[in-house]
Amino acid sequence: MSDTRLRPWYFTVAGLALLLLIPLNKDxxxxxxxxxxxxxxxxxxxxxxxxxxxxxxAALGLNLLLGQAGQLSLGHSFFVMVGxxxxxxxxxxxxxxxxxxxxxxxxPPLLAAICAVLxxxxxxxxxxPVAARLRGIYLGIxxxxxxxxxxxxxxxxWPEFSGGSNGRDVPRFExxxxxxxxxxxxSERLYLGNVAxxxxxxxxxxxxxxxxxxxxYYRNLVKGRPGRALRAVRDRELMAGIIxxxxxxxxxxxxxxxxxxxxxxxVLYALAAPSRVSVDExxxxxxxxxxxxxxxxxxxxxxxxxxxxxxxxxxxxVLNQYAEAGSIPFxxxxxxxxxxxxxAATFIxxxxxxxxxxxxxxxxxxxxxxxxxxxxxAPAGPAPNNxxxx
Amino acid sequence: xxxxxxxLVAGVSLGAVYALLALGFVVVFKATxxxxxAHPALLVTGAYATARLTSTYxxxxxxxxxxxxxxxxxxxxxxxxxxxxxxxxxxxxxxTIMTLGADLVVRTEVTREMGAVDLLAxxxxxxxxxxxxxxxxxxxxxxxxxxxxxxxxxxxxxWFKLSxxxxxxxxxxxxxxxxxxxxxxxxxxxxxxxxxxxxxxxxAGLFLIVFPTPGFSSTTYVAAIVAFPAAILGGLDSTGGAIxxxxxxxxxxTLAQGYAHQLNFLGDNFYEVMPYVxxxxxxxxxxxxxxxxxxxxxx
Lengths: 390, 299
Hints:
The structure holds 2 protein chains of 2 kinds. Helices cover 65% and strands 5% of the residues of chain A. Chain A is mainly alpha-helical. In chain A, helix 3 runs antiparallel to helix 11 and helix 3 crosses helix 12. Chain A is globular, with a radius of gyration of 22 Å. Mean pLDDT of chain A is 81; it is low at 34-40 and 385-390. Chain B is an all-alpha fold. Chain B has one domain. Chain B is built from 12 helices and 2 strands, in the order H-H-H-H-E-E-H-H-H-H-H-H-H-H. In chain B, a hairpin with a 2-residue loop joins strand 1 and strand 2 (136-139). The mean pLDDT of chain B is 88. Chains A and B meet through helix 5, helix 6, helix 10, helix 12 and helix 14 of A and helix 4, helix 10 and helix 12 of B.
């Protein structure tokens, strides 16, 4: 009996193997599927995957705050922005022309990335006194202020950091002398099998490592003492205080870790960008998208956050690709009539947000658990042991 | 001095508009405990309908306005009945996020309806006329907004204090369970609160798209978001606070815009983020807003 069971880790191992192999299947692999992947190249999917992985990290951070500590934040795109631009400023080169004034410190990229995450944490700490004192809804709206004020500061007060409304170039990543460029020198080129690893392939593996690290850290944090304390604060703040949880400190702590996650997501986001990042990419809309990722995936669930981030982020580009090929009815081709793919994507995830909350508040994670249970034909008994994390 | 007076009047007038928005937001929160992030959607729907009917279909303004307001009220009622009401048993945070989703869908739909048009100028009886009082020059629309704001707010408070429904609503806000035991139908009170919010948002929306604003555009909702800091800094559960919050936000925005030269060191267009700056400053001192009830619990 137990041999025939589907165990979650089979899927995990299979999924990871697939993710590791994706960059290695050069275009010949995609050629076979041209029927299903029209007009796309491998670079499109790799690029999309890079962005999605950046979002996974940011969504994990928000999930810690919202799903575990029960604190609503509409300001997480601010921390993503802080991470992205701190990295760009620290690692980028100074540039002064008649129209462009960019400040840059030209630090080693790895150091810049670490400092960017710390910087997001510092911003989180600065906001933590506000966060710890406010009740859920007040915090949600106060953090909305972060998005608008942060955007204003970077755009109008310090355009030399952000490059103004045009954005600025992202310095290429470099790790122990290995340059992450699209077409490296033949002498410095790295091969895996017979595939030369360019920027996207190398970044893919680095991102994958970071995402796994972030995922494992989240799970450990949630399973341990801090996670229990956070959930106690979420479920009944007064009671948590009575049994000895320092409520304000834990709220601030959740905000700090969460903002560092978002900052890391921002660094990844900047690295994923093919050329530039600009302030306008980190607005109110991104905050709402992050919330949608967390809620659609399932509040509190790490796997849910991964699913939600990939789903919400990839929906629009994927619909775009297919609409261009005209392979989806109702959707408009560029310049044609019909529903625009971007609009359709917003409808889908907006509606998913509403419908899931109405009928399955546990989100995709709860749906997934239900499916697994049905497949296993387990008697409807107590839920599997990962539910206490919810 | 004239400049200051002019800014003061303009600020109070803008503040009255924000007060209407914040008031609807607060009423929903008081009566149902839901933080309504679909508020921008209500505003956008009402304003869009009015602008579209007067500009494209050449409707009389006084015919189009009730249709716009009615549309917003219907939308509010729909959201309350079909989305919020079935979720009543769930955590407030979940309902709040759900309204964000509803807001997103409605706003996207309105933007889609606009199609290729970037700007819909509403055709109203006041046009771009200005009025001169002493040295103060003021667009007529601003004056109308001020008067409409005062009238509506006064009417609301009289109704809230004296009418049966107003008393019922206050009772529900005070103690929902006892109110229900006294025979007050909470679902009706909730529906009424949402409808009020829709109507007020539509009126506020109208004044946000008339002169001196060029018209309705896909960014009109940004103005509606300002209702959140206004409501929060006054205190989410205080109707009087909503008025004060709206006025504070309106005044600070107008003054920051008027004295932009002196505030240059804070960057261009600083006035746009003024509501949020004021909000965070107030919340630092008073975490429940200026007039909000502080939750007392000791450990």
